Amino acid sequence: MQNVTEPIEDLFGSIAETLSDAVPLAPLTAGQRAAAAGRLLRNIATSPAAIARRTAELTAELGEIAVGRSDVAPEPGDRRFSHQAWTDNPFYKRLGQSYLAWRKSFYDLIEDVEPDEKARLRARFLAALAVEAAAPTNALLGNPAALEAALNSGGRTLVDGARHALWSLRHNGGMPAMVDTRPFVAGETIAMTPGAVVFRNEVLELIQYAPADKKVHSRPLLIVPPQINKFYILDLAPGRSLVEYAVSRGQQAFMISWRNPTPEMREWDLDTYVDAIEEALDATLEITGSADCNIMGVCAGGITTASLLGHLAAVGDERINAVTFLVTVLDWDTPSTVASLTSGPSVAASIQQAKARGIVDGAELSRFFAWMRPNDLVWNYWVNNYLLGKNPPAFDVLAWNVDSTNLPAGLHEDFSNIAVGNALTKPGEVVVKGDHVDLSHVKLDAYIVGAETDHITPWQACYRTAHLLGGNCEFVLSSSGHVQVMVNPPDNPKARFFTNPVVGNDAEDWLESATEQQGSWWVHWVDWLEQRSGAKRNARAKLGSAAHPVIEAAPGSYVKATACSP
Questions:
Q1: Mean pLDDT, the chain, as a whole number?
Q2: What is the CATH number of domain 195-540?
Q3: How many CB atoms lie within 10 A of CB 77?
Q4: Residue numbers annotated as active site
């Protein structure tokens, strides 16, 4: 199941990137969507010069297409028009080029008439819902590959497609399934790094991983994954597991596995999760006999980690030695599509809905994120499942994506308020366990990772973390996307990253003078971590301790619980 071509892996990485664990803010309400669409139409109507220019350009291009002289082609990575008919058949060639020319003209017009970046991002998102749906490849007669498959199969592909569509209506909210999850079972084919659950409370399980060598570093590493989706993206499969690699380098690694909350757990908020991490931290230190540990926070887990560190700094607690933030946004002032689709009223409405239901449904959130990338995440599977009559692929990253988890109403409200108010950039604005958080008082060495093509947590926003913390910070930029950065083994031939010891005020200036390094940032990170992990000592023969005995084998029970909707 891993013997797939690099282009397919790239596509799956792009899909995973969108369905990942960004802070779940509220999408626009129906009224706000209508208002945004109305504003776009008004701006277009009151911009006759832009309309005239784009219309003239499109008319000229359509003329070139009609006589066969156009060089309009799909964008790199757009596989919708890969069938030979789009090149060789005069009708399909002109049909495809005409659509692509119109599509470009419409998106260019949005750039012309929308006055600010947030408005452009919002308008482009709304326009894409219609523009990408209009692609000829989404209809049977406009898709030569589907017609060919139907002819060759005697219509069997159409029957199978209808069966898949009926299943989607019954079981998947009308969305085409994007993955066959059956081959992927936690502890059997994924999340396989040896270890054991050595602590459990109602919020989390703590996994201690077995040492890979006779010697380990004395200071342990505690990993805090995001609360949306499950931890095993960091332990996906042998050879593609970040935690496996860390263990192979002598790290005493501990992983938090979050419980999937139900509506009865609606009151769980940021304080609840910080309390639970502190209990896991105490267990980690007791088991290893260390006075302190290093910590890694990933995406939304990084926001929780920053809140914990702010609380510990406020009370003078020195149990954390150094911190890693992986694709984590703490400063929300950088424009992004996610941010453009939220506002005060939409967040307030989402908070009230979550309070009434008790949770934010992980499956619903995944469907919302799917429509942010309609070609990759919706229409690609519409064509595959319904027009071609194929089963969705079996791929572990996608299986992880759809293994969604809920978010309790309390934590959703705290996360939403932090993001919309950009509260972690304002000393004292966030209060954790009664203590006002000021990240400038977090004077730890920090390793901060961004991903170059990440549109969920833009790397420029991740870069700003270095200017919020009070310690020595190193920023590293991986060439990959949001999820690909987490599944980036050293033997990946395409892996590269950028380093620059001077972390100035401007992210783009940093990149301009950065050095490109071949290989995975994992190696660079563990090199950095080793300098802060203490001397090596003999690894203990058994996991756990007398105070914290082994409860069960990794990956534990919480990771196996399915999402429970109200």
A1: 90
A2: 3.40.50.1820
A3: 11
A4: 299
